[in-house]
Amino acid sequence: MNFCFIGAGAIARIIMRDMESLEGCRLVSVVSRNGESAKSLAGQYGGRACASVNEALSCPGVDVAYISSTNDLHYEHTIAALGEGLAVLCEKPFAINRSQALEMVELAKVKGLYLAEGMWTRHNPVIKKALSWIFDGRIGNIRNFRVSFASPSDAPPEHRLMNPRLGGGSLLDIGVYGVAFAQMIMDIAPVSVCAAAEMTVSGVDGQCALTLRYPGGAIGRVFSSLTAPESNDAVIFGENGEIRIPAFWNPSKSELITPNGTECFEHPDMGYRPQLEAILSDLQAGRRENALVTHKFTLEVMDILDKARECITSRHSEL
């Protein structure tokens, strides 16, 4: 598969590193707001550094567009790639809101093209094991859970993390992992979403806390922060036990704790490789979406993010 990279930042470089270990993957073109970054990536892995998105997408031989531009441009660049008849792997957050995400999904369906969100956590072997414990009933019905992801940053207001025009803020940038995790373990949309946030001077949520309530009474708590530390783990409490996952977004181990004792599952860090292997398998089989990160799953996550931000906006307008 021949790839076009839109965006050449840190994540793109890690993806390219892991992609290099897979047979049959090749970088054909790359474009970035920072032209030097594109040249550097192309120089290291081959391919052509392009001056524009259109030039990169239309390079001869490109099969797949990998979108890793700033959050605000995921929609625009995905639509452009689909317009060129390319399969697309788009980094999280898939879009700025559900309306954009739905348009992306519908266009892919109309054109008969592959489209997937780059939610690598779902492909992690440790996450798959934890989900098997849940779905096999090892902890009984889930009663509550908490999941947190904090990455304190001293980035200036104009940086993509802190810039509202670039889709910044903790919820969209890292909180999406916690929301996606909630959808993974609950496999059903919440009946209510409440959120509170601490806003930065630049106008994005520096830290954000969500409370999700589900049919049957289960309650989940999702926390994200760019301004304060947290435990960075996930804990799921069921009727008959609990599951603990340190560094849940890319874990190397998980624990199942029940009255019968503790069971530990460990797996070495494979980075983005499991996700890339799944995407390549989909493309080679002619599938149009991924079985684990379905279009439905992505739209449900975007819906929760929309409701959380509506709640935050409403609360701050009252202050």
* Order of secondary-structure elements: EHEHEHEHEHEHEHEEEEEEEHH
Mean pLDDT: 96
Number of strands: 14
Helix content: 25-40%
Class by helix and strand content? alpha/beta
The total count of helices amounts to 9
**Looking across the biggest beta sheet, what order are the strands in?**
8-9-10-7-11-12-13-14
Low-confidence stretches at least 5 residues in length (pLDDT < 50)?
Answer: none
Indicate the overall shape: globular
Which tags fit this structure?
319 residues
Summarize, please.
This protein is α/β, with parallel strands linked by helices.
Fold and architecture overview:
By secondary structure, the protein is of the alpha/beta class. Helices cover about 35% and strands about 25% of the residues. Strands 8-9-10-7-11-12-13-14 form an eight-stranded mixed β-sheet. The longest helix has 24 residues. The radius of gyration is 20 Å and the shape is globular. The N and C termini lie far apart (about 50 Å). About 45% of the residues are buried. The mean pLDDT is about 95.
Q: How is the secondary structure organized here?
A:
Layout lengths: L1 E5 L3 H11 L5 E6 L3 H11 L2 E2 L3 H5 L6 E4 L6 H10 L3 E5 L6 H14 L3 E4 L6 H11 L6 E9 L19 H17 L5 E8 L5 E9 L5 E7 L7 E6 L3 E5 L6 E6 L2 E6 L6 H13 L9 H24 L1
Parallel strand pairs: 1-2, 1-4, 2-3, 4-5, 5-6, 7-10
Antiparallel strand pairs: 7-11, 8-9, 9-10, 11-12, 12-13, 13-14
Helix pairs in contact: 4-5, 5-9, 7-9
